[in-house]
Structure formats: C-alpha cells, structure tokens
Design a protein that fits this description.
By secondary structure, the protein is mainly α. Helices cover 98% and strands 0% of the residues.
C-alpha cells in the first residue's frame, strides 16, 4: 500500500510539474509576442520621430523663405510708392 501511494504521489507530482511547465511555456510564448509587439511599436515610434524632425526642418525652411518673400514684397511696395511719388512730382512740374 505504501508503494502504491508513493507511486500515486510521484504521478501526481509529475502531472503538476508537466502542467507547470506547460504554463511556463505559454507564458514565455506570450512574453515573446508582447516583446515583438513592443519592438515594432518602438521602431514605428522612432520612424515617426524621425519624420517629425524632417517635417519640422522643412517647415522652418519654408517659413524662412516665406518671410524673405514677404520682406521682398514689402520692399517692392515701398519702392513702387517712391516711384509713383516721383512720377507725380515730375508730372506736377510739367503741368505748372
């Protein structure tokens, strides 16, 4: 009877050990899947940050160009006003 009960105890222990190994393997597979997903998310995040930096630099460049064009436009407008005033003065002198 003792031999039979210790054999049952070994079988029960072996069964529990097999179940524990099964749970451990499932847990490791799950962890590997989550680590791969995390790695993909990190990679995508780095790509987005890189794209954001590139777009920010491009925006800065375009903004600087727009400012230069605006400044040039203001200078052209100022020169046109001066030219129109000069033409008016010349026409006024000819009329007198």
């Amino acid at each position: 009877m003792t031999e039979h009960s210790s054999e049952d105890g070994y079988e029960a222990a072996a069964s529990r050990l097999d179940k524990a190994f099964g749970r451990l393997e499932a847990s490791v597979r799950s962890l590997n899947g989550r680590m791969r997903a995390h790695s993909r998310i990190e990679s995508d995040t780095q790509k987005l940050l890189s794209e954001r930096s590139r777009l920010a630099a491009e925006l800065d460049k375009v903004s600087a160009r727009a400012k230069r064009l605006d400044d040039s436009s203001a200078e052209v407008a100022r020169r046109l006003v001066v030219a129109m005033e000069t033409v008016r003065e010349v026409l006024a002198k000819e009329d007198s």
